[in-house]
Write a structure and sequence with these properties.
Layout lengths: L23 E2 L8 E2 L8 E6 L2 E8 L2 E12 L12 E3 L2 H9 L6 E4 L8 H8 L4 E2 L1 E2 L2 E2 L1 H7 L3 E4 L5 H8 L3 E4 L8 H5 L2 H8 L2 H22 L7 E4 L1 E3 L2 E5 L4 H8 L3 E2 L9 E5 H8 L4 E6 L7 H7 L7 H4 L3 E5 L13 H12 L13 E2 L2
Parallel strand pairs: 6-7, 6-11, 7-8, 11-12, 13-16, 13-18, 18-19
Antiparallel strand pairs: 1-5, 2-3, 3-4, 4-5, 9-10, 14-15, 15-17, 19-20
Helix pairs in contact: 6-7, 7-12
Length: 366
């Protein structure tokens, strides 16, 4: 199955509230605290007062579900934060450290073989960042042996995470992959800013990302022709497509495209009958996907999978676009560069808007 559905569409809809640990409460008392602005993320809340911070993490797809509420004291001698040694359970979370230029604070990372960012890769190769997976799964013994100050995960609720907390390692959930917009995902950089002592820098970094993204979105909104855009992944006899509330659908809308599966409710992927998917394909002007392969993707490779594809308008016109995640860091740097992803899509759907554009993540298939 193509990786377009991975991370954002993995079924983590049943997030469990994380167990209590030092610095955590089930409710938030924000008297005299000033809210730190969080404009796009549905799952992150931050408050600040003098030398104190409060962070609340909610399920972005069900904001009534509180995953964890954390209270911190900012002090050089008895500090909860800033932390200086992090174990990170996702390459997407690592991208926030990269954006803040604090990769040296990552002491361990899962799936280091998937790292494409040159600085992170160099630190992995030199042994400064330890591999935390074994046989394709998080190795909890490796985390315990590393003994970081903090472990960041996208999937709370595991009993093994309780074991980590019992060793005095702080565990925090960062379900950014469940956000419904690209800017909502990118805004989780502010949580890393809080935990690492770089809150102001994270706010500044996000403001730059947001400004660039919204300028591009406004530019794309001026077009008169809105193409139909199809996406998703085939697995055996079914098609899996992102819901209309997914960040993938948001990318298409913000690039002034119309998502063909806009009738699919929700954030996660929906399983469709292949015939129903083929009908949608036959009406689409563009067809996009994320692939993972060493060689360049070609239209011939697409048609080889199903000869019926050859007659679709998107294939006949050559309007196929892909992101090869083996070459472009879509699941890493792409999280904190949504404006660059959006620029690619705008240049593909509306070439005259960005005639000098250089593709970074998505590109037309030759």
């Amino acid at each position: 199955m193509q990786r377009l559905l991975s991370i954002s569409l993995i079924s983590f809809l049943c997030l469990l509230a994380s167990s209590c640990q030092p610095g955590q409460k089930s409710t938030v008392d924000t008297d005299d605290f000033k809210s730190v602005e969080v404009k796009h993320s549905r799952g992150l809340r931050i408050w600040k007062k003098e030398n104190f911070l409060k962070i609340q993490v909610r399920n972005p797809q069900d904001t009534l579900q509180v995953i964890g509420t954390y209270n911190f004291k900012l002090s050089s001698d008895t500090a909860d934060i800033p932390f200086k040694a992090f174990a990170v359970g996702s390459t997407t979370i690592a991208s926030f450290f990269q954006k803040l230029n604090i990769n040296d604070q990552i002491s361990g990372l899962t799936f280091t073989n998937l790292v494409l960012n040159s600085d992170l890769k160099s630190r992995v190769d030199s042994g400064h960042i330890a591999e935390l997976t074994s046989a394709g799964e998080l190795d909890f013994e490796k985390v315990l042996a590393l003994d970081p100050e903090c472990f960041l995960t996208y999937s709370p609720g595991s009993s093994n995470l309780d074991r980590i907390q019992e060793q005095g390692i702080h565990v925090y959930a960062m379900p950014e992959h469940l956000e419904s917009t690209p800017l909502g995902r990118a805004e989780w950089i502010k949580m890393i800013g809080c935990l690492s002592g770089n809150l102001e820098e994270s706010i500044e970094a996000f403001n730059e990302i947001e400004s660039a993204y919204l300028k591009l979105k406004s530019r794309a909104a001026l077009v008169s022709q809105i193409p139909q855009v199809f996406t998703g992944s085939r697995y055996r006899d079914h098609w899996y497509a992102p819901g209309n509330e997914s960040y993938i659908a948001a990318y298409i809308r913000d690039a002034s495209g119309q998502y063909t599966f806009r009738d699919i409710e929700g954030h996660g992927s929906a399983e469709l009958d292949m015939e129903a998917a083929l009908k949608q394909m036959s009406q689409a002007d563009y067809w996009g996907m994320v692939v993972s392969q060493d060689s360049a993707f070609t239209i011939d490779q697409l048609v080889e999978k199903d000869e019926r594809y050859r007659n679709f308008p998107s294939v006949k016109s050559g309007n196929i676009f892909v992101c090869n995640s083996k070459k472009a860091d879509y699941f890493g740097d792409g999280v904190v560069e949504p404006h660059l992803v959006l620029a690619d899509l705008i240049a593909i759907f509306h070439p005259t808007l960005l005639p000098e554009h250089q593709y970074i993540y998505f590109r037309p298939v030759s």
